[in-house]
Amino acid sequence: MKKPTKPKLKGRKPAEGDKRQFLTTMDPDVIKAVKLAAIEEDTSASVILETAAKEWLERRKSKKA
Q: How is the chain split into domains, by residue range?
């Protein structure tokens, strides 16, 4: 007898590894520019935004030191 399988869910795939979803609002032109840059760089918008956030946090940390 065949083992029952879970139906595939439609929509977004779950985050990889220990990542969590973070929802924010931004200007539509900025969103479009980030998405286009992601395509040009062969990466994802989330990778670009995470990199930008990490770099900003590092600069912020340096200013306080």
A: 28-64
